[in-house]
Design brief:
Elements: E1 6-8, H1 18-28, E2 34-36, H2 40-47, E3 52-55, H3 60-65, E4 71-74, H4 84-89, E5 93-95, H5 102-118, H6 120-128, E6 144-148, H7 152-161, E7 167-172, E8 183-186, H8 190-194, E9 199-202, H9 216-221, E10 227-230, H10 239-247, E11 253-256, E12 276-278, H11 289-306
Parallel strand pairs: 1-2, 1-3, 3-4, 4-5, 6-7, 6-9, 7-8, 9-10, 10-11, 11-12
Helix pairs in contact: 1-11, 5-7
Length: about 325
């Protein structure tokens, strides 16, 4: 075997085998030597000669051996776990998987919004009890959906909400950047947005600014009929405040793909509310994950060769 151009590290994501990722890369870059490092020793060996590595993380010890490495393509959108300073010191560019989750998470959010408006959970409970009993529902149309976070996922959510006839408000750290929503506000106007909200979607990264952003004060501002959907990170929402709001009938309901703590312990009160639906952090799951990752990587290999700007570059 000749020296590899691209090494796929032995780090799985969403239960998908890395062999599928390597196959998708080969399909897009048939003229490149793509190898999978299946053991620690293979990782060390291949990193000594590869120009590009892709995976979840790169150990600093392995990085010291990677003298030819020009690019580390992280398979996650978040890169806070990476040794960025060491990578920069070794002149290794870093890209992430931003945008890969857009379509699938947006579908999750739209499904959650429709489920809440039409009260499908109640219909399911009644069906399980063999009860034919009418109940009132709402329409998603004409409601106001506030989306906190207008990155790739926030954009995808907004795009898919357009046919539903809703008004959208975007809340982001840098409102001057604008966005696809009908209105864009900064975090300093969060309460102004919340006061007009029928459905609140949390789609922002977890940062010092967003940790605990949806606290007891925010949950006092939001109307009591409103629903909350969190597909970001659990700590963006104050869990104790959320439990209190649900228990006191100060919030219409919640759909949580992420929680704090996570995993949510079996005895936690959030499990027992009829108007709270919980999924195990799988809104981002999709069978097309590696295809989308490979599209980004293939474009960046071409950009790297031609000296052009890299897509999704973070360092």
């Amino acid at each position: 075997m000749q020296d590899p151009d691209i090494v796929v590290l032995r780090q799985k994501i969403h239960g998908l085998a890395m062999g599928e990722y390597a196959a998708a890369i080969r399909e897009r870059l048939p003229d490149r030597e793509v190898v999978i490092a299946r053991t620690p020793s293979e990782e060390r060996k291949f990193l000594e000669s590869a120009r590009i590595a892709t995976g979840f993380n790169l150990d600093t010890d392995d990085l010291e051996r990677a003298e030819n490495l020009d690019l580390f393509a992280c398979i996650y959108a978040g890169t806070g776990h990476l040794p960025i300073s060491a990578l920069e010191a070794n002149d290794v560019a870093v890209t992430n998987a931003s945008g890969v989750h857009g379509p699938n998470i947006a579908e999750y959010v739209v499904g959650a919004l429709v489920m809440q408006a039409r009260d499908f959970p109640r219909a399911i409970r009644q069906a399980e009890d063999h009860q034919w009993r009418s109940f009132q529902t709402r329409e998603l149309q004409r409601s106001t959906v506030t989306i906190v976070g207008l990155g790739a996922i926030g954009h995808a959510i907004t795009e898919r909400l357009e046919p539903f006839g809703v008004k959208t408000i975007g809340v982001r750290y840098s409102p001057e950047k604008g966005g696809p929503t009908d209105e864009v506000m900064g975090f300093d106007r969060l309460h102004e947005a919340l006061a007009r909200t029928d459905h609140l979607v949390i789609a922002c990264p977890l940062t010092d600014e967003t940790e605990g952003l949806i606290d007891s004060d925010a949950l006092l501002t939001i109307p009591s009929h409103a629903t909350l959907i969190n597909i970001a990170r659990g700590p963006v929402v104050d869990t104790d405040a959320l439990v209190s709001a649900i228990r006191s009938n100060r919030l219409g309901g919640a759909v949580l793909d992420v929680t704090d703590p996570e995993p949510l312990p079996p005895g936690h009160p959030l499990w027992d509310f009829d108007n709270v639906q919980i999924t195990p952090h799988n809104a981002g799951h999709t069978p097309y994950y590696y295809e989308r990752l490979s599209d980004i990587l293939a474009a960046n290999v071409t950009a790297l060769d031609s000296g052009e700007d890299l897509e999704n570059r973070v360092a």
